[in-house]
Amino acid sequence: MKATGSTKRRAAAGPRQTGTANGSLDERVKSALAWLKRHATRATRDGMARFAIPSDNAYGVAMKDIKALGATLGRDQPLAAALWATGVYEARMLASFVGDPEKLTPAVMDRWCRDFDNWAFCDAMSFNLFDRSPHAWAKVVEWSGREREFEKRTAFALLWSLSVHDKGAGDDAFVRGLELIEREAADDRNFVKKATNMALRAIGKRNRPLNAAAVAVARRLAKSDDATSRWVGGNALRELTSPAVSKRLD
Questions:
Q1: Mean of the pLDDT values across residues 187-193?
Q2: Of the residues 99, 133, 152, the one at which a domain ends
Q3: What's the domain range around 32?
Q4: What is the mean pLDDT of residues 52-68?
Q5: Both 142 and 240 in a single domain?
Q6: If you count Cβ atoms within 10 Å of the first and of the last residue's Cβ in the chain, which end, N or C, has fewer?
Q7: What is the CB neighbour count within 10 angstroms for residue 100?
Q8: Closest CA to 72 of 26, 105, 110, 36
Q9: pLDDT in tens, 103-136
């Protein structure tokens, strides 16, 4: 699956900021970890369980603070790789903000995706980094057929993100995405079914033709004999046929 316009979209976003921290890579990693520890709170760490995020290897730093540090550091793929290698939750989330999509290889995307053990990694990497990569659309197709829950979720989180961020992609790419959603809609694992639902809804809000295509898929799923497919389709159908979405598309 290849979408035209992705390169234009990345160029339109403006020049990427480069890493600003001084010192060796090891020193920069230690500096980032120290900064994260200073901004950690027990309340944030304890609250992670409410969102089904493991806290065994976490400091307890709010996402707004992680994002702020990422903006300061800028795009720096070697730093992102080193942060990911620490295994620390916040360092890995920070990697989504400092990774360089132009230097991100398919092999690294695959390796990180295999490491995902919660939905937050899937979504943060998809929305902050992976969807800016020239390999994004290929990974949607590849990962949609994976067996592991968070690998498959990443495929549909990425499709969801592309529907929001890839302004230059043609409708054909998203129509193929709808085919993947329909194919995998019976997967009843919580984080997969929620991602397929969100991707379906997001595609259907992109423009009128895609709304019609997404509604057709949602109607078929809503009539399915499979309970999960019915939930994915029915939930999306209510939003995609709502007056609010119709007004937005007009």
A1: 97
A2: 99
A3: 18-99
A4: 97
A5: yes
A6: C
A7: 19
A8: 36
A9: 999 999 999 999 999 999 999 999 999 999 999 9
Whether residue 9 is found in the same domain as residue 30: no
- Res 205: pLDDT: 97
Residues 6+ apart with CB under 8 A from 117: 54, 150
Q: What per-residue confidence (pLDDT) applies to 3?
A: 52
Confidence of residue 23 (pLDDT cuts 50, 70, 90): confident
pLDDT tens by residue, 194-208: 999 999 999 999 999
Indicate if the pLDDT at residue 58 is higher than 50. yes
For the record, the structure tokens of 225 come out as 């004999």
Q: Are 117 and 111 in contact (CB under 8 A)?
A: no
Tokens of 223: 């009539």
Residue 178: which region, alpha, beta or left (left: phi > 0; alpha: psi -120 to 50)?
alpha
Residue 181 and residue 204 in one domain:
yes
Whether residues 83 and 199 share a domain: the answer is no
Whether 7 and 51 share a structural domain: no
Q: Are 130 and 116 spatial neighbours (Cβ–Cβ below 8 Å)? A: no
Largest CA distance in the chain: 60
Torsion of CA 79, 81, 85, 86, to 10 degrees: 30
| Per-residue confidence (pLDDT) for residue 2, from 0 to 100 | 52
**Domain endpoint, select from 72, 99, 126:** 99
The residue among 37, 29, 43, 34 whose CA lies nearest residue 83 is 29
Q: ∠ CA 113-117-119 to the nearest 5 degrees?
A: 85
